[in-house]
Amino acid sequence: MAIHLDHLMVPAHDKRASAKLLAGLLGVPWSETGVGPFVPVYLNDGLTLDFDEWSGFFPRLHFCFRVTEDDFDAILARIHAMGIAYRSHVHGPVDRQIDTEHGGRIVYWNEPDGHQWELLTVSYARQSDDVYLGM
C-alpha cells in the first residue's frame, strides 16, 4: 500500500505574505489563490502547503524540508540575502551556524508567525532513505 501526504494546512496571520516568503526562500512556486480560502505553496509534484489566515492565537508548528546539497546552498544563500536569522540547533540561540552532527547539514529558522522551518540534507530520522532516494 502506498500512502502519500498530499497537503498540509499552515495557519498564518497574513497567508499571502507567509506563502510568498517561504516559496521565495525555497525557490518553489506558489499561487495568490488556491482551492477555497488557501494560498498554496507547491513543494513538489505531490505535496502542497496550504496557508490559511487565522486571527488570534494558533499553534506554532515545525516543518522539515530535506533537500540536495546544491539546493541547501541555494536556499541558505537566499536566507542570508534576506537577513533571516538562523541557527544550528532546534532549540538553540541564533548562531548563524550549520549543524553537521548527523552526516549532513541542518539549519533552523522561524518565520514571522513563529513556525519553525528546518532544512537538512540527510534525514536523521530515516537515514537509510537517503541512499534509496539518491540524495
UniProtKB/TrEMBL annotation:
<feature type="domain" description="VOC">
    <location>
        <begin position="4"/>
        <end position="122"/>
    </location>
</feature>
<dbReference type="InterPro" id="IPR029068">
    <property type="entry name" value="Glyas_Bleomycin-R_OHBP_Dase"/>
</dbReference>
<protein>
    <recommendedName>
        <fullName>VOC domain-containing protein</fullName>
    </recommendedName>
</protein>
<dbReference type="InterPro" id="IPR037523">
    <property type="entry name" value="VOC_core"/>
</dbReference>
